[in-house]
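Record passed on here:
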Amino acid sequence: MKNKTIWISGVTIFTCIVLAVAVMAGVMRYSSMQLLERDAEQTAIFWAEFASSSVPDLDVLLTEGELTDDAHIQLKRFRQVEEVFRFKMFNREGHTMLVSDDLDNPAGAEPTVSNIGHGNTKVRNLVLNGQNVVLLKRAEDNQQRPHLQ
């Protein structure tokens, strides 16, 4: 009888430890994703503000859709910074004005077609109402970009 009680107590303690470890792992994973998303949003906001103040003729790109040589050179430099993998620029109506992948295309090449939120109306409405939307994606499907770590 005493052995049975000890065995049940041992199984109970072991189960509690396993559950505690599982809960801790879940909390840590959730917290790390929250921190990664917050950091990505802050970095994206910083770069957007920096681009608006340092890219010549940015207003021409956003209003007329024309990318001047000076703006082209400056935007290509942004992608050389470790924190900037890819970016998209939309005008106030939500039309794609530039996808950074197109900066390497030869003149006259067909631009990348992209929509705000890729059909997700919630994301589109957030962006068009002035909210920040930062999407994190793993690069497993595209080997040209670094993996998030």
User: Anything to note?
Assistant: The CA atoms of residues 8 and 14 lie 10 Å apart. The chain has four helices and two strands. The mean pLDDT is 79. The longest strand covers residues 96-99.
